[in-house]
Amino acid sequence: SSSSPRATRSMTARSLTRWARRCPIVLWAALAAGVAWLVLAALDYYNRRAHNLTMSDRGGSGGRAPDFLTVDHEKREAARRAGEVFDEKIAARDAAEAAAAAGEPARSPAMGWARIATVFFAVVTVITVAIGAIGRIETFDEGVRRLSSWERFSEIVSIYWLGFLVVAAMVAVQIFHAVRQTQSD
């Protein structure tokens, strides 16, 4: 009765499950590779179908050959005229930009956003310092009594280093802007 089809099927199933228990990583990797292959094959098929493409080994030329040795002189002349018209448009645009630049310096939107961001960070820094100062009045009072002015400054900078960097950057940008504006006047 061990040679019956049912016994053979159960032996095969048992040996497969025993093997599957021993090699789950290999099975999952093979399954993932198979699924990935199927998905990529389907995507390739639908992409080729959507763009009316054929595989290079399946498509024939059908007797068609490129005709790049004959020159269409009318089209060539039309393309040359279109290029001249385009060059004239570019020259007119450049002249208009030069005239606009001579009167007023160009301001980019980034400059406006930079100023808004500077003011925003300055306000956030001031609010943060004020709230921190109110919360640490006793600590600051004790520190003032025992530290010199330079030590107080370095203590404040070490506590609020990020705010100090933001304010320093803001001051540097404003000084740079003022110097540049003074030089342009």
Notes on the structure:
By secondary structure, the protein is mainly α. It is 80% helix and 0% strand. The protein contains seven helices and no strands. Helix 4 runs antiparallel to helix 7. The protein is flat. It starts with a helix and ends with a helix. The mean pLDDT is 78.
Largest sheet: none
Low-confidence parts: none
Q: Give the CA-based shape.
A: flat
Rg (C-alpha, Å): 38 Å
What is the string of SSEs from the N terminus onward?
Answer: HHHHHHH
Mean pLDDT: 78
Strand content: under 5%
Helix content: over 70%
Overview features:
185 residues, mainly alpha, 80% helix, flat
Concise overview:
The protein is mostly helical and 185 residues long.
What is the topology?
Elements lengths: L4 H18 L1 H27 L22 H31 L5 H27 L1 H10 L2 H11 L1 H24 L1
Helix pairs in contact: 4-7
